[in-house]
Amino acid sequence: MLLVLTCVALRLTRVVRGDEPGQLIGSWSLVSRQTTLADGKVVVDPGLSAVPKGILIYDRSGHVAAQLSRPGRTVEMLASECADAEKVKGTGDTAQTILGYDAYFGTYTVDEKNGIVTHHLEAAIFPGDIGKSITRHFSLSGDTLTIKFSTTTRDGTPVTRTLVWTRLK
Fold first, then answer.
1. 3-state secondary structure at position 78
2. What's the average model confidence in pLDDT over 132-143?
3. 48 falls in which pLDDT band (50, 70, 90)?
4. How far apart are CA 72 and CA 158, in angstroms?
5. 26-30, 52-56, 76-80, 81-85: which has the minimum mean pLDDT?
6. To the nearest 10°, the Cα dihedral for 92, 98, 153, 124?
7. Where does the chain show beta strands of DSSP type E?
8. Alpha-carbon Rg for the chain in angstroms
9. Looking at residues 79-91, what average pLDDT do you find?
10. Quick one: 5 exposed, middle or buried, by C-beta within 10 A (0-12, 13-18, 19+)?
């Protein structure tokens, strides 16, 4: 029995290490989201805008939830952009462009030594993202969390995204 409890404790520690100060656990508000092309040029995301709203939540039991939204979304805007129903069958990047919204939840694991957090998506606004594991590089400085990752846009252009979050209190 002691061996089982020890294994469970080690597993929880590996996932979140929630007892150390300054860790990911908590709620975070999006400060900025920057998209940078390979040549260093910063571009505005057409779906989420230059200054989207967002919340990111990590809990002690290893669960994560994220929501990002373009400010000023309206029903009229959505109806106009979704007039072609085929567009809505795309991936998360397509969802952001069309709907101005992205959301998912699941579990997460942390590799603190290398500054990597991996989100394991259990559900997402678009079904194509469900079951994916997305890896992000992170750094913490006080109550500021910076997450950075490489990806491609809907048209296949390679970009680096940098999201800066502040801890909610």
1. helix
2. 96
3. confident
4. 28
5. 81-85
6. -10
7. 26-37, 42-43, 53-58, 63-69, 101-111, 116-124, 133-141, 144-152, 158-167
8. 17
9. 54
10. exposed
**Sorting pLDDT into bands at 50, 70 and 90, what band is 47?**
confident
Tokens (6 digits) for 51: 């200054």
Question: What tokens does 149 get?
Answer: 């990752």
Domains of the chain, first to last: 26-167 (2.40.128.280)
CA distance 116 to 112: 6
State the residue for tokens 């995204």.
161
Residue length of the chain: 169
Q: Which token pair is 23? A: 């860790």
Higher pLDDT, 7 or 43: 43
In which residue are the tokens 């002690």 written? Answer: 60
What mean pLDDT is predicted for residues 113-127? 93
Residues sharing a CB contact under 8 Å with residue 90, sequence separation 6 or more, in sequence order: 98, 126, 128, 154
Question: Judging by beta carbons within 10 Å of its beta carbon (0-12, 13-18, 19+), is residue 142 exposed, middle or buried?
Answer: exposed
